[in-house]
Amino acid sequence: MSERGPEIIVLADAEALADAAARRLVEFLHQAVAERGWCTVALSGGSTPRALYQRLARPPARDEIDWSRVHLFWGDERAVPSDHPESNYRMAREAMLDHLPIPPGNVHRILTELDPEEAAAQYEAELRHVFGVHPGEIPEFDLILLGIGADGHTASLFPHTAALAVRDRLVVANAVPQLGTTRITLTVPVLQAARWVLVLATGLDKAEAVARAIESPENIDETPAQLLRHARGRVTWMLDRAAASRLASAG
Q1: Model confidence at 196, in pLDDT bands (50, 70, 90)?
Q2: Which residues make Cβ contacts (< 8 Å) with residue 7, sequence separation at least 6?
Q3: Mean pLDDT of the 115-138 span
Q4: How far apart are CA 238 and CA 250, in angstroms?
Q5: How far apart are the first and last CA of the chain?
Q6: Which of 67, 85, 99, 243 would suit a FRET pair with 36, their CA atoms being 20 to 30 Å apart?
Q7: What's the CA gap between 87 and 74, in Å, rounded?
Q8: Hey, where are the domains in the chain?
Q9: DSSP helix/strand/coil, 224
Q10: 218 to each of 45, 123, 222, 229, how far by Cα in Å?
Q11: Mean of pLDDT over the chain
C-alpha cells in the first residue's frame, strides 16, 4: 500500500478542475519525456476528462508538449465501434487527437471491431510490444487517468464483476451484468503499477462514491476504486467541491 496516501485537491468547480488538471499534465509530460525520452498515458472516458482534453488540444498546452514522444492508450472501452457516440476513443479523438500533432503510430486504441475477448487479447499483446514486457511482467504507465462512477467503479472494473479478481492478465473483457454489456478494461495490477494515477471527479452524484473510495473500510468488491489504496506510485484525486462534499478529510 502507498505509504503516503492519496493527494486530494479540491477545486471550485468543473472548469477550475479542468484548468488545474491541464497545467499539471503539461508539467508532468515535460518531466517524463525529459527523464525517459518518451511518455505513456492511459486515457479515460467521460465528460470530466473531455474538458481536460479540450484544454490540452489548444494553445498554450498543445504547443508546450512534444507529442511525438507521447504514446496514448485507453484504460477501458465500451464494446462499440470506434465511431460510435459512446466510444471512449471517439470522444478523445474529437476533443483532442484531431487537433494535436501526434503521430498516428503513437495512438493505441482498443480494437472494438473485434469480439471483446479477442480485442482484450490483442490489446494486451499491444501493451507487451510497446512496453517491452514479457509474460508475468506488468507495464508501468507514466500516467493513468481515471474517473469514478456513482457505484464506485473505476476504468471498467465494476462492483462484483469477475475482472476484479484477475491478476494474471493485463487486459480483460469484463461482463457487467448490471449494465447488460461487456467492457474491455485494464486490470487491477496495471492500474496499481502506474507511476502516477490521476482521478478526476465532479458533481454531487459522485460524492458518496468518492468518500467510500478514499475513507471507508476497504471492500474492493463493493467499491473497486479502493484498489488505488494499493497503488505503487503517486495517486492524486482532483475533485470539485460537490464531489468532495462527503469527505471528512476535505471538510
Answers
A1: very high
A2: 234, 235, 236, 237
A3: 97
A4: 12
A5: 25
A6: 99
A7: 11
A8: 7-240
A9: helix
A10: 26, 30, 9, 9
A11: 96
Separation between Cα atoms, residue 85 and residue 183, nearest integer Å: 15
Integer Cα distance of 39 and 48 in angstroms: 22
Residue 175 bridge partners (DSSP): 182
Q: Does domain 7-240 have CATH number 2.40.160.10?
A: no
The continuous run of DSSP H or E covering 72 comes out as strand 70-74
Q: Measured between alpha carbons, how far is 25 from 39 in angstroms, rounded to an integer?
A: 11
Beta bridge partners of 41: 72, 143
Query: What's phi and psi for 242, nearest 5 deg?
Result: -65, -45
Residues 213-240: b if buried by 16+ CB within 10 A, e if exposed: bbeeeeebeebbbbbbbebebbbbbbbb
Cβ(171)–Cβ(205) below 8 Å: no
Give CA–CA dist 195/116, Å, rounded.
28
Name residues whose C-beta falls within 8 Å of residue 60's C-beta, 6 or more positions apart in sequence.
none
Helix (H) or strand (E) holding 92: helix 88-95
pLDDT attached to residue 1: 42
Peptide bond into 189 cis (omega under 30): no
